[in-house]
Amino acid sequence: MAVKVKSLEWSMSNFSSLRDIDRRKFLFGLTGTIGLAAASNADAQPLSKSVLDLPHAANGGQIDENKLWAQVKTLFPLRPGLIHLNSANFAPSSTAVLDTAEALSRDVNGDPSFENRFKFEASIEVVRASLATMLGANQDEIAITRNTSEGNRTVIAGLNLGSQDEVVIWDQNHESNNVAWDVWAARYGFKVVRVSTPHQPEAPSDLIKPFRAALNARTKVLAFSHVSNVSGIALPAADLCRIAAKNGILTLVDGAQTFGMMNLDLHEMGCDFFTGSAHKWLAGPHEVGVLYVRASRIEQLWPSMVTHNWEKMSRAGARKFECLGQRQDSRIDALKVAVDLHNTLGHERVEERIRFLAAYVRTAIAALGKVDFITPFQPEMSAGIVMFMLNTENPRSVMETFYNKYNISAVAYPVNGKSAVRFSPNIYVTTDELDVAVKAVSSLL
Hints:
The chain is α/β, with parallel strands linked by helices. Among the domains are: 123-337, Aspartate Aminotransferase, domain 2, CATH 3.40.640.10; 349-443, Aspartate Aminotransferase, domain 1 (Alpha-Beta Complex), CATH 3.90.1150. Helix content is 36%, strand content 15%. It has helices spanning 65-73, 95-110, 114-117, 119-135, 148-158, 179-188, 204-214, 237-246, 266-269, 310-313, 329-345, 347-366, 395-406, 431-443, and strands at residues 25-28, 50-53, 83-84, 142-145, 166-170, 191-195, 219-225, 250-254, 273-277, 289-293, 372-373, 386-390, 408-409, 411-415, 418-423. A 7-stranded mixed β-sheet has the order 4-10-9-8-7-5-6, with helices on both faces. The radius of gyration is 22 Å and the shape is globular. It starts with 24 loop residues before the first strand and ends with a helix.
């Protein structure tokens, strides 16, 4: 049963085989020292501390899924026993990501000369190319930001909107793609129109209909979260982008809950702008994000920050939106390590695994009875988030029970006098751990 949510006060399938069996080894870890451009370039010396060997069974090289995901779990430095079910907010970086960022940071602090730091000009392009391939985009359409919020801000602040214009947004957007529009509207006078979708949608068409009804001749932008962090509902992004494009309307897709979780092709999706963060489902370095700007939209989007090297950056595609001055380049290089892990596993495989975990825990909780779900069961309207209601007025006590008694990191929100619980399991979570989570939920019924 689905449940109606008025407000949130806090903001099984088969697995395909690897497409490229040659990518069976994921370089993992670091040697004790690092030389010029080590760890940052695709052609760098191997980071040889250890490797991930994708486990294969003897029968024709088929992947042993249980062994594979058990080994993937060892790549993350989570405290033994901790069950982390909050990737929708914050995920741990892999040990390889942490080691890469730390080694490069020590390298730069040991030799902060221009000569030593020049290497990042080349390595950041390797990272950009890797992101473009992952997202189905062109390299010049990718800007490397600090997080989704910064990407959203860049788009919101960079468009020429006036008093005769309207922006349509989803009322389940994150604040950075919701409240942020209100702030800019107060300054520039355009109108923000909020769309509410059905709380118990039966099909994607139920989600499309209210957006279509809100669009008119004055609408200039349609901005929505691909997957809502406050409900877990997944919108039919490609359909919405197609409808908007037919009416000459720009689309901003907040991909905080799908970047690193879904196998994405932004050209196929048809959006004009897409934003994401590495610290969630990608389990990458913290304070690194991505902004996609369709090539044909780059010129009409103003940068919200301009500093040294602007003349060069302004002629370099979406790079002009990352003209931020000094930043932690080591984290950007570490992003490539996180993307490499996903490339090794296969983006389809990662999505299938996360969807499997979400379906597993959702089905088990539903079997308990007495639980109403916020997130739809249908896979076309959901992704990696599972949200459900518990009949208790104190969400903080729910979180404390999860954490102190069951060693579970999750989140609960107050909703209509009850507690909405959000589970968002990532690739380092096991079904045994989800069984513990179900036991924890059962104890609160």
